[in-house]
Amino acid sequence: MIITLTPNPSHDQTVTLPGPLARGEVLRAESTLTQAGGKGVNISRASVAAGIPSIAVLPAAKDDPYVLELLSAGIDCRPVPTDGAVRVNITITEPDGTTTKLNSLGPTVSAEVLDELAESLTRRASTADWIVMAGSLPPGAPAGWYADLVALLRSGGARLAVDTSDEPLQALVDRLPLCAPHLMKPNAEELASLTGTDPERLEADPHAAAKAAGVLLDLGVEAVLATLGARGGVLVTGSGAWHATPPPVDVASTVGAGDSSLFGYLLGDLRHEAPAARLALALAYGSAAATLPGTTIPLPSQVHPDLVTVHELNLTRER
Question: What are the two backbone dihedrals, phi and then psi, of residue 54, each rounded to the nearest 5 degrees?
Fold first, then answer.
């Protein structure tokens, strides 16, 4: 069982252009696609498609079209009633795969709603293999709320994964090791912001990325899955470090690719795969997601870990 928390869900609207984006011009869209999205929800979608039970916890009215869409897709959605409509995020994609995102803040959340979300997770923690807390925090939520949840849930039996950015990510790291999740999934930019390194160097040099991820292990995190865009990703655990690269693909949209990668890792873990195989599955899921429009999450039949190249890294190597 994978339980996901999406504290700031969104209707993801993808606008596909037939040519390059031109600022200040009137452009005709080739197509538009609207999907119920959000990092945690994307992981629940992937989980259901792979036959793994999942519950999606999020703030929304029970009769919100967002919730009804998830239920109609077979996703066990447990909304916590809140004021305000689910936000809309707009993604503009160009033929070369360039993605431009316009993300809304979302409605302000009350302390009561935050408490109910936390209670919903706590009540189900003993039934979960993994609890995934993912995405931005809505207005009204303190930056340290994810750290608070990790501290609350660590004794509940489930393993905890966190995928966030900006102030919530920094607040979590500031409270390590007391609030250390079992897994963190930063991208190169997020990892660089935590370690004071150059994100372009991390993407270009898997050894540098793995050493930066190792800083989080020193602070109590058990595993770090760092996605490096087209350069693949690295996995660092207490038993070693690995770098993986997927085959070249025609990119349709990068939205949801990181979420798919995180699910791929969790799926490998639930299958008791070795770390290298978990990383291969993570990169295969992320690569498959990048070939699909909008926030579409790949089906297992579209995922090919056998095409991913994985090799172990020697972190004592001089650079």
Answer: -150, 145
Give the tens place of pLDDT for each residue, 123-168.
999 899 999 999 999 999 999 999 999 999 988 778 999 999 999 9
- The SS3 of residue 91 is strand
Residues ≥6 apart with Cβ < 8 Å to 170: 143, 193, 194
Q: Please list the active-site residues.
A: 259
What residues does 13 pair with on adjacent strands? 34, 90
Query: Please, what is the angle between helix 145-153 and helix 111-124, to 10°?
Result: 30
pTM of the shown model: 0.92
Q: Is 137 left (phi over 0), alpha (psi -120 to 50) or beta?
A: beta
**Fold of the 2-313 domain:** UDP-N-acetylmuramoyl-L-alanine:D-glutamate ligase (3.40.1190)
Q: Give the tokens for residue 254.
A: 């990068």
State which H helix or E strand residue 209 sits in. helix 206-218
d(CA 119, CA 113): 10
The most distant pair of C-alpha atoms in the chain lies apart, rounded to whole Å, by: 58
Residue type, 177: P
**What is the Rg, in whole angstroms, of the alpha carbon atoms belonging to the chain?**
19
Please name the residues in contact with 227: beta carbons below 8 A apart, sequence gap of 6 or more: 185, 186, 187, 188, 233, 257, 258, 261, 286
Three-state DSSP at 174 gives: helix
